[in-house]
Automatic annotation (TrEMBL):
InterPro entries, per the entry: DHC, Dynein_C
GO cellular component, one term: dynein complex
PANTHER family linked: DYNEIN HEAVY CHAIN 1, AXONEMAL-LIKE PROTEIN, DYNEIN HEAVY CHAIN 5, AXONEMAL
Name this polypeptide is given: Dynein heavy chain C-terminal domain-containing protein
Superkingdom in the source lineage: Eukaryota
GO terms classed as biological process: microtubule-based movement
Molecular function via GO: dynein intermediate chain binding; dynein light intermediate chain binding
Domain named Dynein heavy chain C-terminal: residues: 32-93
Organism: Adineta steineri
UniProt-listed Pfam families: Dynein_C
Length: 93
């Protein structure tokens, strides 16, 4: 029974769980994404070296592509953007 209940819990915690507004949650997600990308950039070698190694840009592109592939199949970016472009209280900024 416990495992069945756990399976019903969403994998994504909304900001409401922590008392955050949807706008604060969006900002948190942006900050987290920026930190991940900054970390990826910071751990890459700063100098170009000879050899067949990937460039910093190629590594970041590959990691970003892999991340995009992990999005759920029903996530269609242009549809989400279209829905968010409507002026509503929660997405006006």
């Amino acid at each position: 029974d416990v495992f069945d209940y756990i399976d019903t819990i969403p994998n994504y915690d909304s900001g409401k769980v922590f008392g955050l507004s949807p706008l604060a949650n969006d900002r948190y997600q942006e900050d987290t994404t920026r930190k991940v990308l900054d970390t990826i950039l910071s751990i890459q070698p700063k100098e170009a070296r000879g050899g067949a190694g990937e460039t910093r840009e190629a590594v970041i592109y590959r990691l970003a592509t892999e991340t995009l592939e992990k999005l759920p199949p029903d996530y269609i970016a242009h549809e989400v953007k279209e829905r968010l472009s409507k002026l509503e209280p929660m997405n006006i900024f």
